[in-house]
Amino acid sequence: MHAEERERLILAAMADNGFIAYRALEARLSASPATIRRDLARLEGEGRIERVRGGAKLAQDDLPVAPPAPSAALLGTPFEQSIGQNTEQKRAIGRAAAALCRPGEGVMIDGGTTTFQMCPHLESLGLQVLTNSLHIVSALLPQQGTRILVPSGAVFREQNIILAPAGEDSMPRFHAPKLFMGAASIGAQGVMQADVILVAAERRLVDRADEVIVLVDSSKFATSSGNVVCDLEEIDTLITDAAIGDRDAAMIEKAGVRLIIAE
């Protein structure tokens, strides 16, 4: 396969959400990692893409633009329904996640019913928190020492989160040591969400974090389908509950991910 054809396939693979993981590229192109790196270097030199953690994304001018209507609904389980599922496990996971935060640091907390459970345990830490979740904003507002940042975009009522259209980067210029994020499901393919708009938003967060921490209760391993946000190898730490199966635990540890079992 000629370089020109590989480059065309690389750009086509990014068409849906503006990002492709290195491992996915290797599978699609049947080329060596060194060849793919050279292809990406050429495309980056031409200003077509940007290489980021775990893969590459389209440059801003080439990103697909598909603005959602403010009243559009996201695929997936609404927040008010999900908040009542596996509540005790989520509380334990949220508590364990909050214990990883250091006083005074800046963190990003992605919207979700498991990340939401971190909020009661953050009050004394004096954090700077970037979040796209209005539920998390409401929970943090009474904490006088917590500084809150939010992106611009449309409000999606089912999850009560703020998301920008695909291709529009509305996040403040914010880089954080840690990103805490949930998932609709998780499997050998990686961390998955039901909606491509969520995938694009979470990729922006992943690209801004030194450490990616995924919070999922063990039921999220039961199904592994959806749109891939990131490979398992891009995760630094995964926090779940004691009901995780041995096979799933081995899969996580084989990927080099630190596994924390919340009690």
From TrEMBL:
Keywords: DNA-binding, Transcription, Transcription regulation
Membrane-crossing segments per the record: none
Transcription among keywords: yes
Record Gene3D superfamilies: Winged helix-like DNA-binding domain superfamily/Winged helix DNA-binding domain
PROSITE patterns assigned to the protein according to its UniProt record, in alphabetical order: HTH_DEOR_1 (PS00894), HTH_DEOR_2 (PS51000)
Domain HTH deoR-type: start-end pairs: 3-58
Family annotation (Pfam families): DeoRC, HTH_DeoR
Coiled coil: none
The protein's name: DeoR/GlpR transcriptional regulator
Organism the protein comes from: Sphingomonas corticis
